[in-house]
Amino acid sequence: MTDDDTIAQAEDPLNLSLSEAELEDRHEHLTGFIREQVEAAGTDKAVVAISGGVDSGLVAGLAADALGPERVHGLVMPSEVNADETMSDAVRVAEQFELPHDVIEVGPIIEGFLDAYPEGRQHRMAAGNVRVRTRAVLNYLVANTENGLVVGTGNRTEALIGYFTKYGDGAVDCHPIANLYKQQVRQLARHVGVPESVASRTPTAGMWVGQTDAEELGIEYDTLDSILALHVEGGVPVSATAREIGVDETVVERVRALHEHSSHKRQVPPGPAEPY
């Protein structure tokens, strides 16, 4: 985005909220999924990167409920781009769910990469992705050391538009909340007891100082959810979707483009077909 760009926001976003009965059902279903994944892999525990955001807060709570807190290892991995308040809330989440956890400062590791290839410092997105991938390496270092499974924190909204780092936060063993839109993530997070300061926090991927998801994407999450549910997944035409939620058609088309252009992120890397 440029300074002149505005953040697209629907006048009447689609309500994708879950009922109390549905929240209970989702909670049971997702905790069962985590248990099944850990048991099927023959691992002893789950490793969850806790960022101070609502997605990781929810997954931390679900993992604790699924396995017991003693079988979940939380990792808080701050760097110079993360706000102190956010990192404090990440630790608070671990303590809320009584998770064994470590705080690992990733700044010196990232500096090692950027020292090795200084040109990367001039490219904000490339340097931001190094931060995310460094955390993924540490997730697997801990998981391999402790016979653990790396449990991801990606949601449906971000997956559908490719808003994650390939081989970064997308590099995990399972995605428990992969079927939840962002507004449902917030709702279920409150249901499982994630602190309100985390559940209501402005989402950020923590890739550079001051970064927020809405400013980078140019669209609010409730609006994204609405367009994805109606147009991308529901097949409602562009014009009808725009009228239904109260946005310009160009906003719907932009979300569609994000979905299409990020398809490679949602697939196994391709190889060539056999030549015969």
Automatic annotation (TrEMBL):
Highest taxon in the source lineage: Archaea
Keywords from the UniProt entry: ATP-binding, Ligase, Magnesium, Metal-binding, NAD, Nucleotide-binding
The keyword Magnesium is annotated on this UniProt entry: yes
Known pathway: Cofactor biosynthesis; NAD(+) biosynthesis; NAD(+) from deamido-NAD(+) (ammonia route): step 1/1
Binding residues annotated for ATP, in chain numbering: 49-56, 153, 182, 204
Start and end residues of each NAD/GMP synthase domain: 28-269
Amino-acid positions noted as binding deamido-NAD(+) in the UniProt annotation, renumbered to this chain: 133, 166, 173, 264-265
Keyword Ligase set for record: yes
Cellular component, GO annotation: cytoplasm
GO terms classed as biological process: NAD+ biosynthetic process
SUPFAM superfamilies: Adenine nucleotide alpha hydrolases-like
Catalytic reaction annotation: deamido-NAD(+) + NH4(+) + ATP = AMP + diphosphate + NAD(+) + H(+)
GO molecular function, one term: NAD+ synthase (glutamine-hydrolyzing) activity
Binding residues for Mg(2+): 55, 158
Gene3D superfamilies, per the entry: HUPs (3.40.50.620)
The enzyme's E.C. designation: 6.3.1.5
Functional summary from the UniProt entry: Catalyzes the ATP-dependent amidation of deamido-NAD to form NAD. Uses ammonia as a nitrogen source.
Subunit structure: Homodimer.
Family named by the database record: Belongs to the NAD synthetase family.
NCBIfam families reported in the protein's UniProt record: nadE, PRK13980.1
Identification of the protein by name: NH(3)-dependent NAD(+) synthetase
